[in-house]
């Protein structure tokens, strides 16, 4: 215990039920570990109501220095090592997230986080991967995503947040390393287009391409990537499985390949 605590991180989702949560809590209590439940508000509301009672039982046992305790409705005695602790993280406002019940909120101390400055993150990341015009490109990147949030349709699968931004920046860095002789405006234009076009619904595509053209007026739209080896393998697999080599389908496969 002098050097640190063993921390287990659990990625929560809709499949978690109160039985699974009870087993996790019991295991953490018995080994004296800390548990971090990431995306905690993805768990279904009825399950969260039971979880509140489970957490309350653990806290009451710790307050009274009880060596063994029981969950409500469960006769099994559970060993409690008082050094165990539980932490939860959540992203309010995201699709598929649940508002925590008040009785569960009361059991945890809230720590508010500031929204990061995306423009600074873009600028630093672009500089780190070798872009010379990182300041101007970061500004264009930031304006594009802000405008997309405001003007494109509201789709559940659209993500203009930090997760998507970091994915684009990683791809932009790899593109820069692979094309040291190409203009940076051209590379950023292509990366932003290829990383986002595949997820857009048909009605949003013209507006998105128009925004890109406005932000990069001196850059001619980069040609689509060509992958002859991949396309040859696609043709073989299509013939092998008796499918139809449909151009729209091929385009989607290539877009998926490019984003990976």
From TrEMBL:
The keyword Coiled coil applies. Pfam families: AAA_6. Gene3D superfamilies: 1.10.8.710, P-loop containing nucleotide triphosphate hydrolases. GO terms for cellular component: astral microtubule; axonemal dynein complex; cell cortex. The keyword Coiled coil applies. Keywords: ATP-binding, Cell projection, Cilium, Coiled coil, Cytoplasm, Cytoskeleton, Dynein, Microtubule, Motor protein, Nucleotide-binding, Repeat. GO terms for biological process: microtubule cytoskeleton organization involved in mitosis; mitotic sister chromatid segregation; nuclear migration along microtubule. It is found in: Cytoplasm, Cytoskeleton, Cilium axoneme. GO terms for molecular function: ATP binding; dynein intermediate chain binding; dynein light intermediate chain binding; minus-end-directed microtubule motor activity. Residues 2-259 form the Dynein heavy chain hydrolytic ATP-binding dynein motor region domain. Belongs to the dynein heavy chain family. This is Dynein heavy chain, cytoplasmic.
